[in-house]
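Researcher: Batch entry, complex prediction.
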Amino acid sequence: QSVLTQPPSVSGAPGQRVTISCTGSSSNIGANYDVHWYQQLPGTAPKVLIYGNINRPSGVPDRFSGSRSGTSASLAITGLQAEDEADFYCQSYDRSLRGWVFGGGTKLTVL
Amino acid sequence: QLQLQESGPGLVKPSETLSLTCTVSDGSISSDHYWAWIRQPPGKGLEWIGSIFYTGSTVYNPSLKSRVIMSVDTSKNQFSLNLSSVTAADTAVYSCARCAIFSPFDYWGRGTLVTVSS
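Model: Structure tokens for the complex:
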């Protein structure tokens, strides 16, 4: 069981909008630790998609956006494209565990 | 651009110790960051194993703490992972990465598959 909870899968048609939730607790997201999102394409290392809850690294399209509220965070992807198909992970820090934690991952399928 | 590269055996026998090294290049390991090991079993999600600071200060995942030892060699710009008493459940792609408490894992190695089997 991951400390951060994500839906195992989401799907959407090209051009549509999807969101991926990441639910934590008062010892991680709720304790104001930042949430970061990663995109992992098959056979590759995870790549930072969103950092510090809402920030996009240079080169990440503005179709990707992040938000955080209370003990949860969300990743939104608008204008879905076939190339967006990948696994997505949220990540934060947990003060009770005194370490870094990941969500279980969400597989995005573009229909 | 900072680069990380994992090295070590791809096959380890059950009950033995898994040992991996991460070499950091185009940057110094003696920076204000932690250096981490993360693993991903085939078809499963990411699991943080532990992190080490260049001073040698370590933080381990409580679920693995009893079997993990990490070390750092600043003269070689390397840090290492030892995971003892391995079982088939420890079969995974092991990756090294750079991190900080308030920052993401921003640089990753390509990962190395370690299989536990007799």
